[in-house]
Design brief:
Layout (H helix, E strand, L loop, with lengths): L11 H19 L2 E2 L2 E2 L7 H24 L4 H30 L2 H15 L3 H10 L15 H23 L2 H25 L1 H6 L1 H20 L7 H21 L13 H13 L5 H6 L2 H8 L1 H17 L7 H28 L3 H24 L7 H9 L6 H8 L1 H5 L16 H5 L9 E7 L1 H11 L8 E7 L5 H10 L1 H5 L2 E4 L7 H12 L5 E5 L13 H9 L8 H4 L6 H17 L2 E3 L6 E2 L6 E2 L18 H13 L15
Helix pairs in contact: 1-2, 1-13, 1-14, 2-6, 2-9, 2-11, 3-4, 3-14, 3-15, 3-16, 4-5, 4-16, 5-6, 6-9, 7-9, 9-11, 10-11, 14-15, 21-28, 22-24, 24-27
Length: 661
């Protein structure tokens, strides 16, 4: 290990660790497919390594300053942070602004502009938690500034930590401060474990759940100054660096964010491995020499710029790539990321960090903020007119809406209009509305009352049936939202609702996920004792064109003005996901065994019994029927509702089993 008495002396192997972290994160965000998985599926852990390094280096600086000067200048600390963080961040924003104006759809541009402001305020972790928590939110991989959530976590930590450290070191010793840090880290670790179990997404973006990772670095920094030779030498000195590197890489290749309780106790191996590398590496050992190699160190020096640039480049790349990105697409993104990062490092990061006077820095800061804030204001007020690509797309789409976010919002309109005192939309789509829980929607005592239950797919079914009321005479429809992650609680609310009490028929129409058998059985077990007629609706057809665009948009943009939209329906079966079709067979059998009626939702979209198989992605009027891979537009819902009537839905006695319907 480097001489502990010169704790701030440059350690090239630390830059080597940064290189591992940033390359891991970049590979993770590329999503390179290997069979049924992706390369380096645990690459997100590079951010955790960054947190430990940040806590270690910053705390060393603060403690050394206190020991030397007897105090810590908060003003100077934040000045150094501003010089380190802001210039490269603003450079990326300024370059991204015109790219966003050219590439992003109106709703995407509005979200992008808000993301810039949240990044500048260092609250983007909160912004993205709420933004991506909306039902049907656009993929995080398509959000150019999603990655700034980690910068927000760091800066929130540094708003709280330095003043507390000053207070502790003024009143007590560094050793006492160390014990407070250890206690705080343990509390944060326990909190992260609990919060991850309760709400994994909230925990991922929460500074409370991440504080222990930064504190691990801070604790290590305090230890290096209190007892720098502890544990050094002997077997540990020789074994720990190599073992730590093995543990870290094992986690990178095996951890899966979708299946991992992260952050939490399961993240400990990564944090301990990072601490082991920092503490035990010394010049001459193989791991240190490998991490201190010149090419690795150079990437480490670029790591902040690489981190800032890679996500916007990858996001804009995906948004402008039709279909699945190819290896050459990804290679181009990586090359562009490195080119921009090198330019940013030498032209912005280094000069502003070391050579720019405060007055020039302030002037440059204001000059950079002006177009960012001004552009955001123009977007917010609707005064920014997009031309170029967006205008060309608008002409290409003609009567179709090109912005699927607009179509998604419109699909919630029929439910929203029923609730004058409550807004219904994607933001609260994972829970039943107050109107659904407490109001009676049915008004005609002589009507056949059908309550449609499920998630957003039940919303589509409600739209399909209510937009064709004339085809279902003497019938009324209501809807109740249930979410698969709170199914038992939601079913209790359903059974107590006025609509359930008044309904004659309960139509089960959710989207069916991996646990579809258990979900269907849970529905039936809860509903059959009511004695009401029950209809189990099968899965809907789902389509995947391989990229960021839904099938309709991919086909239209690929074909341009020559695209024959109506021909897409004959092509569509090639892009249909097989899983819903397979699950329909099981659900049909479950319905038969339970002696309830089964309706095929997929048959409303796809026709298999014709000479030429087809799936309706385009209405006869040339309008898109789906705004993503599986949800129906209002036009699509109206068409599929007409087909439900033609198929004889509700025309037979519902209390009789009709498995062939």
């Amino acid at each position: 290990m480097s001489n502990p008495n010169h704790a701030l002396a440059y350690r090239p192997e630390i830059d080597g660790m940064r290189a591992i972290a940033v390359v891991s994160v970049m590979i993770y965000h590329l999503k390179i497919s290997i069979g049924d998985t992706t390369l380096l599926k645990g690459g997100f852990l590079g951010v955790d390594l960054f947190f430990v390094l940040s806590g270690f280096l910053i705390t060393q600086i603060l403690i050394r300053e206190f020991n030397t000067a007897g105090s810590i200048s908060i003003r100077q600390f934040y000045w150094r942070r501003a010089k380190r963080i802001l210039p490269p961040l603003l450079a990326v924003m300024l370059v991204s602004l015109p790219a966003a104006w050219i590439i992003l759809l109106p709703s995407e541009l509005e979200r992008f502009s808000l993301s810039l402001l949240s990044a500048l305020a260092f609250i983007s972790n909160a912004f993205w938690f709420f933004e991506l928590s909306e039902y049907g939110a656009q993929s995080g991989l398509l959000q150019p500034f999603l990655h700034t959530w980690s910068l927000a976590i760091e800066e929130q930590y540094y708003i709280v930590f330095p003043p507390l450290l000053i207070l502790l070191m003024r009143r007590w010793s560094l050793r006492s401060a160390l014990w407070v840090m250890v206690a705080a880290a343990l509390i944060s670790l326990v909190a992260s474990e609990v919060l991850t179990e309760v709400h994994s997404s909230l925990s991922f973006y929460s500074p409370t759940s991440r504080a222990w990772e930064l504190l691990a670095g801070s604790i290590l920094a305090a230890l290096t100054l209190l007892n720098p030779t502890a544990l050094l030498g002997g077997v540990l000195q020789r074994v720990v660096p190599a073992l730590s590197l093995v543990v870290f890489f094992a986690c990178l290749f095996t951890f899966d964010l979708a299946k991992l309780a992260h952050p939490g106790v399961l993240t400990l191996p990564v944090i301990l491995a990072t601490c082991g590398l920092i503490w035990f590496m010394k010049p001459g050992d193989p791991v240190t020499e490998a991490l201190a190699a010149r090419p690795v160190v150079y990437i480490g020096k670029l790591s902040y710029s690489l981190y800032l640039w890679h996500f916007p480049v990858f996001a804009f790349g995906r948004l402008t790539t039709l279909g699945s990105p190819t290896v050459s697409d990804m290679a181009l993104w990586v090359l562009l990321t490195f080119v921009l990062s090198v330019a940013s490092y030498y032209l912005v990061e280094k000069p502003f960090r070391f050579n720019v006077a405060p007055k020039r820095f302030a002037l440059a800061l204001c000059a950079a903020l002006l177009p960012i804030v001004g552009g955001t204001a123009l977007v917010a007020t609707g005064n920014l007119t997009q031309t170029g690509r967006i205008q060309a797309l608008a002409e290409l789409y003609g009567q179709n809406e090109m912005d699927n976010t607009v179509l998604a919002k419109a699909s919630w309109g029929p439910l929203d209009r029923l609730t004058p005192h409550e807004e219904i939309g994607p933001w609260n789509a994972k829970r039943a509305s107050e109107y659904e829980k407490h109001a009676l929607w049915f008004t005609d005592d002589s009507s056949r009352k059908v309550l449609i239950i499920g998630d957003s797919h039940s919303k589509d079914m409600f739209n399909a049936l209510t937009s064709n009321r004339d085809l279902f005479p003497r019938m009324e429809f209501a809807r109740f939202n249930l979410h698969r992650k709170s199914l038992d609680t939601d079913l209790e609310l359903l059974l107590a609702s006025p609509n359930f009490q008044a309904a004659d028929v309960i139509m089960i129409a959710p989207r069916y996920y991996r646990e579809y058998r258990a979900a269907a059985e849970t529905f039936l077990r809860a509903l059959k004792p009511s004695g009401k007629d029950i209809i189990l609706v099968g899965p809907g057809a789902e389509f995947d064109a391989g990229g960021a665009q839904p099938l309709f948009d991919w086909y239209l943009q690929m074909g341009g003005e020559e695209a024959d939209l109506l021909a897409l329906n004959a092509w569509a079966p090639k892009f249909e996901e097989p899983t819903p079709k397979e699950r329909e067979k099981d659900l049909r059998q479950i319905a038969q065994d339970a002696q309830v009626v089964f309706y095929s939702r997929r048959a409303l979209v796809c026709q298999d019994d014709t000479v030429t198989k087809s799936c309706t992605i385009v209405t006869p009027d040339g309008l898109k029927t789906m705004y993503d891979s599986n949800h129906w537009t209002l036009e699509g819902a109206k068409l599929f509702g007409q087909r439900a009537a033609e198929a004889g839905w509700f025309s037979t006695e519902l209390t009789k089993l009709n498995p062939n319907q």
